[in-house]
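Let's sit down with a protein and look at its sequence and fold side by side. Go ahead whenever you are ready, and we will take it from there.
>
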Amino acid sequence: MPLFTTTIYHLMEVDEINATTDGRKLRSEDSKRRIVSAMLELVREGRMAPTAEEVAKRAEVGL
């Protein structure tokens, strides 16, 4: 099905899926921000190579 997964399933039936997708996208973006922030905090605290578990715990996200 390539061609970028058939143009993301025809843009996921645009209007019908937008509300659901927007919520997931917002949560995903929030999680990414929290992960980056947690990683930076841990590095500033001297943890130069924090584990995924440490970052996830600090960011309050699941693995």
Q: What stands out?
A: The first helix runs from residue 3 to 44. The CA atoms of residues 39 and 51 lie 9 Å apart.
